[in-house]
């Protein structure tokens, strides 16, 4: 499990724990210790407790009276339900962003093209940071606080590249898809932006479903 950097409260902790669950680092039936995780991440127990509550509400874990939790099994239906909501919400965000415009679109596009032109393996940290920046910039451009709040809860769920073994292929395909999404937003083409975002997320869904099926076979 990765360590915690630049802690922005429970959302970061939730994201890290989700990644560990989706990647299989934390397996179905495994017990999670609130205290042990807090110590591993170098933080207090409060944000870990809040993250546990979020994960329990999403059905990923079952809380225990002993200040711990048990990891629940992630099945195909859970993945499909999660992606159904994210596709619905984030394609809407892309549509609205294309209507409203993206403040730093040119800067983001330049970074994407530089990443796409990378010779050799793409650095995972660079990809993940840019990936998060792009998606959150689109949410901000959509200018809907409720929409952003719901998407934040879904962020770093099963669509993360950490749940996909062929990370380099995922990084490059995802980068090209991000370029297409931003181009449509910059060109103020809401329908094309919406469709590009939906295509991007559906591919991620297929990747995660295939990975989980192979992992559990």
Search tags:
disordered N terminus, 9 helices, Four Helix Bundle (Hemerythrin (Met), subunit A), mainly alpha, Arc Repressor Mutant, subunit A, 2 domains, single chain, three-stranded antiparallel β-sheet, 217 residues
Write up what this structure looks like:
The protein is built from nine helices and three strands. It has 217 residues and is mostly helical. It has two domains: 10-71, Arc Repressor Mutant, subunit A, CATH 1.10.10; 76-216, GntR ligand-binding domain-like (Four Helix Bundle (Hemerythrin (Met), subunit A)). It has a three-stranded antiparallel β-sheet. α2 (34-41) crosses α3 and α4 (76-100) packs antiparallel against α9.
Compact description:
The chain is mainly alpha-helical.
> What number of structural domains do the residues give?
2
Q: What is the string of SSEs from the N terminus onward?
A: HEHHEEHHHHHH
Q: What level of helicity do the residues show?
A: 55-70%
Rg over alpha carbons? 17 Å
- Major β-sheet profile: 3 strands, antiparallel
Shape: globular
Please report which band the strand proportion falls in: under 5%, 5-15%, 15-25%, 25-35%, 35-45% or over 45%.
under 5%
Please give the order of strands in the largest beta sheet. Answer: 1-3-2
